[in-house]
Amino acid sequence: LLGLSNKTYGGGTPRTTVEEYWQGDIPWIQSSDLYTNKLFDVTPKKYISNLALKESSTKLVPANSIAIVTRVGVGKLAFMPFEYATSQDFLSFSNLNIDSIFAMYSLYNMLQKELNSIQGTSIKGITKTELLEKKIVVPKNVREQQKIGIIFKQLDDMIYLHQNKLDKLNILKRTYLKNMLI
């Protein structure tokens, strides 16, 4: 993954006892904001101030970066289209050298293989060094990367739409059953 991006960022947690740190407008991402099979559309729950950035180990990560959970919740990742800061449980890749959507699916695939190969053992996390030593296969042609990424994104979008439809139908079914048995 060394050639994936030109810059990586770690994270940190501003002291939670300092109220001024948590009254800003900078999205602060934690592991619980990400979901295993949802690679896009992260909704931050917490925000920090510029003072928190200045006085803690957290860093401002540029927009269009990839955030990967390396500790608690290891294996989750998300594409971040906005500037953000993270807890120390993350490694973020910025200024990507390959198509961002292709990168997301390639990293997701690599992380899932890693997690499956050590299934049954307690995973404490993955270090920055270990993560950077991992390899992914990348077509040299950027158009090919884009096409592959688009196909997987369309599949994910279709799965999401059908899952929502299924959820609504299940609710409707339960409602009908409940009303039928009254």
Q: Your description of this structure?
A:
38% of the residues lie in helices and 16% in strands. The protein is α+β, with helices and mostly antiparallel strands. It is globular. The N and C termini lie far apart (59 Å). The model has no long low-confidence stretch (mean pLDDT 91).
What would CATH call the architecture?
Alpha-Beta Complex
SSE topology string: EEEHEEEEHHH
**What radius of gyration results from the CA coordinates?**
19 Å
| Apparent shape | globular
Distance between the termini: 59 Å
Structure summary:
This protein has helices at 50-55, 100-117, 128-133, 142-180; strands spanning 5-9, 26-29, 46-48, 65-69, 77-80, 85-86, 90-96. With 182 residues, it is α+β, with helices and mostly antiparallel strands.
